[in-house]
């Protein structure tokens, strides 16, 4: 069984070539970028046991950390599971060994974006981009604009249409954006952070 | 005091005396050896049973005898082989450090550290850091210049 | 001292590769006082040692400096060599040019210079060495054992059988410890009480064992071979010499609703009680916190509320006015065998660093029990007569979930270590459960199965293969009560499947922790303990049952989590150490102790304040007529361990630590 | 003053004390006197010029006073702190001394000055002194005293602290090169009671005995270390120094360190344990790697 | 003492009723809230899911603004905003390098000295003042206090209450006269930021939570987060499609519940803005017509 998986996956050869070169391995890259030691995870699975999204993930939280430990970058980065994290922090709160799985997944998503990874589900990525665009252009999130932009990006044009009139009626959607005075300040922060992360 | 040129500084080889306890730091230094951790060759260890035995006079005498820096090191709190020698030493050195500093001995020339028997790596760091720091400060020529003053 | 020999060792290539040993020997040969200086390939080899011996004789050496490895490695060797050559072994010292020089430097010139310096320091130091003779101390051939669990029982029996007297102090009313609570024992599944009770009786009847149950160590003074221990005998409220253990008092006691400690809270006992029928000694105690008479007296009630036990006692053994008494015992060695308690998952903890399990309800969910409670359920002498019935409603649980590593291997809760015995006893529990509850399913959540030990792995495999225990690899994230069941949210990391189980009962394998109060006992004994409170052994490998205070030994779970075979082995080891110690009427100690110059001592007694061992005493100097001249410090050589803290604190330098005198250190620094 | 004399007379008459150590008029202001006869009790005086710390005469090193056994001493608050120190270090038995405490609002710098207390004349030792009367006393006399005038001049400790180590070194070298190693600082100190001072020890000789800057520096550093947590702040060493080395400065610095780190202020209660020779598990150790 | 107020984007509009009810309750109980001028979005999940530095820098700007207004404490009613602000504060306090990087980006004098509070913490800390103003105790009203994730997790960032066994919301509800029920899902996640992008997950999680609350006998669920609110309220219709019968579980902001007990009008509290009607609660709470004076609150 083990043998089957080993021969079945092409990246294994390249990945195992990394073993023994801790300086340039994926796990050391992750450690460098995120500031967490992946070896700290002793694979008890408590994170996966408590994860509200585990039933929808193809890779469980502890498995994602395991793949980091094994330097299986490709296998991990091709999978969408990391994008299903709700950042509810249950894993981190309960981790017996003081690891921070939630932060690790945050960092992995960031690494995936930087590498222009394709693993993010379109809708989730669309949502994040739309959300950040809102902040960038107004300093705050303008919800109607967010929903509109998100729908354009995600292609989920007809979801939730039924709720829109209800929201509008209850005064829950505003049609015009408010832009803060310090929006330039915010944009500068955006640019600086993007530039810093690129380095 | 004579201004030192950069070549002076580079050719200057600090001489550093280390007063260490037998049980933790001396053994930690042994471990650094068995682990072949390379470190600066400037430190000379003098072994005492415990930091509790280390008298501030030792530090004064080492400087008098031409040391450019001094390391004092022993067991971490709660790990003292003799249960409390290091706690007494800690108070003693806290006062000595202030008094010596007040009289003009740069506290940067004296390193106090806790290095356990398992911390060979930490010992190497203490040695290298202290050597680098003293190298930066230059020779402790003040004592030698005292002769000229009289 | 003026005739010093220097012996520079190459240690094969180890030193010679980076240090020019010949140059070191030559440089040292030029030092004043050095009459002989050579280098050799392997100084510690037989020919090397012969060279030293030969040189001592030939050159009439009165000091030998060996520049080689760490003194921790070969100081003993070379001191023995010079002793064989006829000079005092304290006239030999080592310069560490291997660990502290050749192994950590590459530059040959620098390393050689450093080796010369290090050797020169020692040459200068040794000029002030003096011959020292070992210290002889008389020995009281009698031992104190603290704790009457299986470790304490074993140690006491072994020492007593070896011909020496033993005082066994147990804080509970009976000896037996946690082992007496167990149902069966792994990996043989023999009945715990069946193997323990005979040993308890043996202790009771042994002519050389003085058993003090319901007693605690109050004070310890003295030193190896010569301890004086004060023991507090707690008041039982029952005159032990009159009581015949008939048990009538327990029957008439009106308050029978007190949670039984022996049954881990699952059973009840009266206010006057023996913990269990096989108790040794079989003498009841009155639980004053729960007895109506004492409660009334505490409220200053005019009349005693109840004296039923006194009325029924035919031997007139009940003594309500009995007070704690203090007894002094002289012993030569002490065994600490205070055992363990179990971690609990409650919100309130006795240590700040330790926290409970909120995700498992902080101990508020009914039918979540710990390992000792399961032992009582499974025990024929237990509250259910050996039937596995859950505490809340007495139903037989059809699904029991066992969780391993609760509070152990869990740094987030404050305990990092592996509790060691849980893997085994949980496997045993699943077997007992399988035998007793037909159709029941045991599910074990584990991280690793640690079954190192004779017959241990076979045992856990048997639980899995033949007793149908389902082992699930993973920790449980959350547990809560839902109606009649306990929802257990776990995950099997082997299959990647969530494991959401409706359990009828949950057993937590909670971590072993040292007994409460261990720190204060350790302080009385001057032994050190780790941050969890476990007693530190003198060396983790080579001196596992000694402590850093000479004459104090450690056995069983107060040193680290231990199972019964470990605890017994340690106990026998302490006994063997102690019998060895007691084999001579005097013992010898390294003479590296402090010595006071009474002529210059001003009697400020700073030394008394700093001495970690209480080794410095007041001494009255008198003239011939007996008039007091002055009071000065004096070091008790038996107690002094040679740390030298007194010397550093002595303003007039009137106390000297032998082997590290001011003269010696001064000379070494002066050579800088 | 009358009350003091009467008390002394009484103590000597009923043999409560065999000697009263106090101040009497000398050729250049008050000086220590030892009254052994009741009829001489009227020689005792007390005013702001009584600067000496008489506790030094309880010190067993003063062999000529040892035979008196029961001694009465007139003490200011700083003197009382020294007596407490001597009791704490078992040099004096409490029951052997009768302490006549004097309320004190400060003294002048030296006994040969006129006794007027001003900003210019007040002794530096009195500036930080919080005590207006000794608590360790069997008898208390004198008028309620107000706080001494604040002295003038820069805060030398702060000034030195602000310097670089090299500048501090220069400062002390300039001061210490005057030292003639007369050891007056030691002789006058009530807390220096060793039979054989470390400075006089020759095997080994940690501290060079000739007046050389090297030994001078070692001597002062060692002296201050020995005074850690013990110095009562009476300033006698500074007053006694024939070449005016500001010895009190180092001691004040050390006292500050001891107070900041160990929360200890030297006390005239002999039952308060001294800070050196004691420790707390959580003593600050920020300077230790 | 003045408390800084960071409403966050949701309270700015879609959860306006959280804002109005909080303002009304605060005024009534004598808490002085001062809005941080020109605050920007905290970055929310999208920030920290994609750019760590940004997820610290955006909240840091807000905290810096609060410092400029000389505020010592800031309350962020939205649990997500609270989490972002508190996390930023915590990480910068722990990691000096990060702190200096952020101050470099902000180009403001910033010492990271502002305390961050959430709404449950604020109300709990002001319980005596609130109790004093309760005029219409919500007797017999059984409520399920829903903490969700970010109020109490992760413990090293939040720390105002027990992570696994919190009690502050229950204490506040009890002060309002209501009876908190014991239930099991009060710490489970509602699906948070996936409201738009992964609605299916939100519905699944919401269903589990609401069913558990109902089984425990709750008549309403009390929340302290606009995202939780929208996921449980707005999505309830979709959830109901998967249940045997409609849940009809009113979802109240904790400030609305306290407001009701204080006799503040339902218009001000914005109870009409919910998808699932809170009328049964209001009726049960026997809150009658309210005096006009309250309207000004």
Describe the structure.
The complex is a heteropentamer of chains A (199), B (150), C (672), D (289) and E (297). In chain A, 57% of the residues lie in helices and 0% in strands. Chain A has helices at residues 2-8, 11-18, 26-34, 46-50, 61-69, 73-77, 90-94, 101-114, 122-138, 143-154, 163-169, 183-198. Residues 1-20 of chain A have low confidence and may be disordered. Chain B has six helices and four strands, in the order H-E-H-E-H-E-H-E-H-H. In chain B, helix 2 (25-34) links the parallel strand 1 and strand 2 (43-48). By secondary structure, chain C is of the alpha/beta class. Chain C is 27% helix and 24% strand. Chain C has 18 helices and 34 strands. In chain C, the strands form twelve sheets. A five-stranded parallel β-sheet of chain C has the order 10-7-6-18-29. A five-stranded parallel β-sheet of chain C has the order 20-27-21-22-23. The model of chain C has no long low-confidence stretch (mean pLDDT 94). Chains in contact: A-C, A-E, B-C, B-D, C-D, C-E. Chains A and E meet through helix 7, helix 8, helix 9, helix 10 and helix 11 of A and helix 1, helix 3, helix 4, helix 6 and helix 10 of E.
Q: Characteristics of this structure?
A:
heteropentamer; C: 672 residues; alpha/beta; Rossmann fold; FAD/NAD(P)-binding domain; Alpha-Beta Plaits; five-stranded parallel β-sheet; 27% helix; 24% strand; globular; E: alpha/beta; 2 domains; four-stranded parallel β-sheet; 16 helices
Question: What secondary-structure arrangement, pairings included, does this model have?
Answer:
The complex is a heteropentamer of chains A (199), B (150), C (672), D (289) and E (297).
Chain B: H1 6-11, E1 16-21, H2 25-34, E2 43-48, H3 56-64, E3 69-74, H4 85-102, E4 110-114, H5 120-137, H6 141-149
Parallel strand pairs in B: 1-2, 1-3, 3-4
Helix pairs in contact in B: 2-5
Chain C: E1 4-9, H1 21-29, E2 34-40, H2 46-59, E3 63-68, H3 71-84, E4 92-96, H4 98-102, H5 108-126, E5 135-138, E6 142-146, H6 150-161, E7 165-169, E8 184-185, E9 190-191, H7 192-205, E10 209-212, E11 215-223, E12 226-233, H8 248-252, E13 258-259, E14 268-269, E15 272-273, E16 285-286, H9 292-298, H10 308-312, E17 325-331, E18 333-336, E19 340-342, E20 368-370, H11 371-378, E21 399-406, H12 422-436, E22 441-446, H13 456-465, E23 470-473, E24 478-482, E25 485-492, E26 497-503, E27 505-510, E28 512-514, H14 518-525, E29 552-554, H15 564-582, E30 586-589, E31 594-596, H16 606-610, E32 616-622, E33 628-635, H17 645-649, E34 655-657, H18 662-670
Parallel strand pairs in C: 1-2, 1-3, 3-4, 6-7, 6-18, 7-10, 18-29, 20-27, 21-22, 21-27, 22-23
Antiparallel strand pairs in C: 5-30, 8-9, 11-12, 12-17, 13-14, 15-16, 19-28, 24-25, 25-26, 31-34, 32-33
Chain D: H1 2-13, E1 19-26, E2 29-35, E3 44-45, E4 71-75, H2 77-88, E5 97-102, E6 139-141, H3 156-161, H4 165-176, H5 184-188, H6 213-227, H7 236-240, H8 247-262
Parallel strand pairs in D: 1-4, 4-5, 5-6
Antiparallel strand pairs in D: 1-2, 1-3
Helix pairs in contact in D: 6-8
Mean pLDDT over the residues of chain D = 89
How many structural domains does the protein architecture of chain D include? 2
Helix fraction of chain E, binned, reads 40-55%
Count of helices of chain D?
8
Structural class, judged by helices and strands of chain D? alpha/beta
User: What oligomeric assembly is this protein in?
Assistant: heteropentamer
Biggest β-sheet description of chain D: 6 strands, mixed
Main sheet of chain E, how many strands, which sense, barrel?
A: 4 strands, parallel
What's the CATH C level of the largest domain in chain E? Alpha Beta
Radius of gyration of chain D: 19 Å
Number of strands of chain E: 8
Please provide the count of β strands of chain D.
Answer: 6
């Amino acid at each position: 069984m083990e043998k089957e998986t080993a021969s079945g996956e092409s990246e294994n050869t390249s990945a195992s070539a990394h073993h023994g070169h801790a300086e340039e391995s994926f796990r050391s890259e992750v450690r460098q970028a995120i500031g967490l030691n992946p070896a700290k995870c002793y694979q008890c699975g408590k994170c996966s046991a408590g994860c509200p999204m585990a039933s929808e993930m193809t890779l469980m939280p502890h498995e994602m950390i395991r793949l980091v430990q094994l330097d299986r970058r490709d296998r991990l980065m091709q999978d969408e599971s990391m994008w299903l994290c709700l950042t509810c922090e249950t894993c981190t709160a309960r981790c017996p060994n003081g690891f921070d799985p939630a932060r690790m997944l945050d960092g992995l998503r960031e690494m995936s974006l930087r590498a222009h990874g394709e693993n993010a589900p379109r809708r989730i990525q669309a949502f994040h981009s739309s959300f950040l665009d809102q902040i960038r252009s107004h300093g705050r999130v303008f919800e109607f604009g967010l929903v509109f932009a998100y729908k354009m990006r995600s292609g989920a044009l007809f979801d939730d249409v039924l709720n829109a009139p209800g929201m509008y009626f209850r005064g829950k959607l505003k049609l015009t954006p408010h832009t803060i005075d310090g929006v330039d300040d915010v944009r500068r922060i955006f640019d600086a952070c993007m530039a810093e992360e690129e380095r | 005091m004579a201004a030192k040129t950069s070549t002076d500084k580079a050719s200057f080889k600090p001489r550093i005396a280390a007063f260490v306890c037998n049980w933790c730091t001396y053994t930690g230094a042994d471990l650094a050896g068995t682990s072949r951790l390379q470190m600066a060759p400037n430190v000379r260890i003098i072994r005492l049973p415990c930091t509790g035995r280390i008298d501030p006079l030792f530090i004064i005498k080492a400087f008098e005898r031409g040391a450019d820096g001094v390391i004092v090191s022993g067991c971490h709190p709660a790990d003292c082989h003799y249960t409390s020698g290091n706690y007494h030493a800690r108070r003693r050195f806290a006062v000595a450090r202030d008094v010596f500093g007040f009289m003009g001995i740069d506290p940067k020339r004296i390193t106090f550290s806790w290095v356990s028997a398992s911390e060979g790596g930490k010992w190497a760091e203490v040695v290298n850091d202290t050597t680098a720091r003293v190298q930066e400060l230059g020779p402790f020529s003040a004592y030698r210049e005292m002769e000229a003053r009289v | 001292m003026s005739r010093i020999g220097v012996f520079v060792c190459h240690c094969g290539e180890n030193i010679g590769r980076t240090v020019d040993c010949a140059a070191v020997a030559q440089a040292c040969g030029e030092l004043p006082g050095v009459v002989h200086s050579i280098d050799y390939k392997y100084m510690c080899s037989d020919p090397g040692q012969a060279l030293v011996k030969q040189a001592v004789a030939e050159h009439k050496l009165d000091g030998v400096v060996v520049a080689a490895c760490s003194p921790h490695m070969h100081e003993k060797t070379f001191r023995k060599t010079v002793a064989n050559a006829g000079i005092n072994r304290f006239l030999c010292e080592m310069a560490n040019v291997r660990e502290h020089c050749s192994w950590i430097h590459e530059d040959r010139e620098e390393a050689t210079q450093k080796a010369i310096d290090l050797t020169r320091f020692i040459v200068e130091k040794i000029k002030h060495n003096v011959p020292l003779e070992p210290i002889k101390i008389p020995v009281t051939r009698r031992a104190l054992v603290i704790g009457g669990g299986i470790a304490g029982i074993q140690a006491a029996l072994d020492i007593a059988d070896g011909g020496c007297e033993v005082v066994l102090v147990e804080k509970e009313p009976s000896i037996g410890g946690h082992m007496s609570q167990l149902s069966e024992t792994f990996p043989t599944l023999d009945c715990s009480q069946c193997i323990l009770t005979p040993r308890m009786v043996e202790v009771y009847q042994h002519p050389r064992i003085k058993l003090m149950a319901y007693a605690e160590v109050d004070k310890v003074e003295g030193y190896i071979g010569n301890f004086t221990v004060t023991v507090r005998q707690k008041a039982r409220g029952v005159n032990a010499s009159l009581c015949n253990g008939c048990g009538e008092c327990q029957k008439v006691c009106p308050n029978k609703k007190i949670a039984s400690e022996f049954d881990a809270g699952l059973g009840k006992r009266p206010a006057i009680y023996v913990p269990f029928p096989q108790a040794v000694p079989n003498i009841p105690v009155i639980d004053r916190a729960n007895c109506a008479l004492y409660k009334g007296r505490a409220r200053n009630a005019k009349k005693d509320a109840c004296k039923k036990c006194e009325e029924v006692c035919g031997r007139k053994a009940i003594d309500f006015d009995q007070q704690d008494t203090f007894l002094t015992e002289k012993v030569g060695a002490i065994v600490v065998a205070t055992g363990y308690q179990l971690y609990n998952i409650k919100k309130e903890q006795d240590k700040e660093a330790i926290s409970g399990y909120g995700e498992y309800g902080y101990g508020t969910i009914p039918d979540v029990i710990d390992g000792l409670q399961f032992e009582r359920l499974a025990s024929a002498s237990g509250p259910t007569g050996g039937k596995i019935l859950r505490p809340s409603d007495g139903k037989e649980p059809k699904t029991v979930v066992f969780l391993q590593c609760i509070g152990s291997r869990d740094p987030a809760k404050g305990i990092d270590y592996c509790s060691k015995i849980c893997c085994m006893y949980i496997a045993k529990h699943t077997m007992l459960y399988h035998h007793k509850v037909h159709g029941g399913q045991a599910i074990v959540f584990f991280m690793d199965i640690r079954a190192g030990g004779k017959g241990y792995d076979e045992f856990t495999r048997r639980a899995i293969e033949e007793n149908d225990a389902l082992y699930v690899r993973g920790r449980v994230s959350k547990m809560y009560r839902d109606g009649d069941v306990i929802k257990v949210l776990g995950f099997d990391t082997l299959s990647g499947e969530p494991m959401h189980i409706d359990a009828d009962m949950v057993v937590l394998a909670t971590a072993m922790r040292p007994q409460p109060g261990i720190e204060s006992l350790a302080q009385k004994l001057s032994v050190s303990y780790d941050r969890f409170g476990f007693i530190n052994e003198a060396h983790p490998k080579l001196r596992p049952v000694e402590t850093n205070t000479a004459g104090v030994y450690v056995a069983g779970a107060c040193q680290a989590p231990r199972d019964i075979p470990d605890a017994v082995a340690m106990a026998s080891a302490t006994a063997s150490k102690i019998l060895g110690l007691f084999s001579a009427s005097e013992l010898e100690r390294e003479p590296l102790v402090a010595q006071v110059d009474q002529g210059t001592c001003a009697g400020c007694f700073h030394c008394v304040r700093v001495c970690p061992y209480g080794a410095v005493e007041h001494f009255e100097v008198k003239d011939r007529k007996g008039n007091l001249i002055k009071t000065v410090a004096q070091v008790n050589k038996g107690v002094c361990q040679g740390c030298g803290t007194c010397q550093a604190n002595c303003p007039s330098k009137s106390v000297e630590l032998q082997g590290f005198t001011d003269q010696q250190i001064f000379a070494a620094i002066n050579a800088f | 003053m009358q009350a003091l004399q009467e008390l002394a007379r009484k103590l000597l008459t009923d043999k409560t004390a065999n000697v009263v150590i106090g101040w009497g008029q000398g050729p250049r202001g008050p000086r220590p006197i030892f009254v052994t006869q009741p009829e001489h009790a009227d020689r005792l005086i007390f005013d702001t010029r009584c600067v000496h710390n008489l506790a030094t005469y309880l010190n067993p090193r003063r062999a000529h006073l040892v035979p008196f056994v029961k001694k009465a001493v007139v003490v200011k608050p700083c003197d009382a702190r020294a007596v407490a120190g001597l009791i704490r270090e078992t040099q004096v038995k409490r029951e052997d001394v009768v302490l006549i405490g004097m309320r004190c609002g400060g003294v002048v710098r030296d006994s040969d000055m006129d006794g007027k207390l001003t900003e210019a004349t007040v002794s530096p030792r009195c500036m930080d002194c919080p005590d207006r009367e000794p608590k360790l006393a069997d008898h208390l006399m004198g008028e309620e005293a107000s706080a001494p005038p604040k002295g003038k001049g820069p805060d030398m400790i702060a000034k030195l602290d602000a310097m670089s180590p090299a500048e501090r070194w220069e400062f002390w070298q300039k001061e210490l090169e005057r030292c003639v190693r007369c050891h007056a600082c030691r002789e006058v100190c009530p807390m220096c009671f060793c039979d054989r001072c470390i400075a006089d020890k020759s095997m080994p000789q940690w501290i060079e005995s000739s007046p050389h800057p090297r030994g001078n520096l070692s001597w002062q550093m060692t002296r201050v270390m020995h005074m850690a947590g013990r110095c009562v702040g009476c300033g006698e060493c500074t007053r006694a120094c024939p070449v005016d080395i500001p010895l009190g400065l180092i001691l004040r610095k050390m006292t500050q360190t001891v107070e900041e780190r160990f929360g200890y202020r030297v006390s005239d209660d002999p039952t308060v344990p001294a800070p050196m020779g004691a420790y707390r598990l959580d003593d600050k150790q920020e300077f230790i790697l | 003492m003045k408390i800084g107020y960071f409403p966050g984007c949701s309270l700015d509009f879609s959860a306006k009723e959280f804002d109005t009810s909080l303002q009304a309750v605060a005024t009534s109980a004598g808490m002085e809230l001062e809005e941080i001028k020109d605050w920007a979005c905290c970055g929310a999940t999208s920030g920290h899911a994609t750019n760590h530095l940004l997820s610290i820098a955006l909240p840091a700007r807000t905290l810096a603004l609060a410092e400029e207004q000389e505020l010592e404490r800031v309350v962020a009613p939205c649990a997500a905003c609270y989490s972002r602000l508190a996390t930023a504060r915590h990480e910068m306090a722990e990691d000096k390098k990060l702190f200096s990087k952020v101050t470099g980006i902000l180009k403001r004098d910033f010492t990271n000295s502002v305390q961050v509070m959430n709404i449950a913490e604020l109300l709990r800390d002001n319980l005596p003042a609130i109790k004093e103003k309760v005029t219409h105790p919500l007797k017999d009203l059984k409520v399920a206090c829903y903490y969700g994730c970010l109020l109490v997790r992760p413990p090293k960032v939040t720390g105002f209450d027990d992570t696994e066994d919190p009690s502050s919301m229950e204490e506040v509800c009890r002060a309002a006269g209501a009876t908190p029920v014991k239930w099991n899902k009060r710490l489970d996640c509602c699906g948070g930021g996936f409201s738009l992008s992964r609605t299916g997950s939100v519905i699944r999680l919401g269903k589990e939570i609401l069913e558990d609350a109902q089984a425990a006998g709750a008549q309403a669920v009390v929340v302290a987060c606009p995202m939780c609110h929208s996921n449980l309220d707005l999505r309830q219709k979709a959830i109901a499609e998967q249940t045997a019968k409609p849940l009809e579980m009113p979802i109240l902001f904790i400030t609305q519940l306290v407001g009701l007990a204080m006799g503040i009008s339902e218009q001000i509290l914005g109870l009409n803005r919910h998808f699932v009607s809170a009328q049964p609660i209001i009726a049960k709470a026997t809150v009658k017509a309210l005096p006009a004076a309250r309207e000004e609150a």
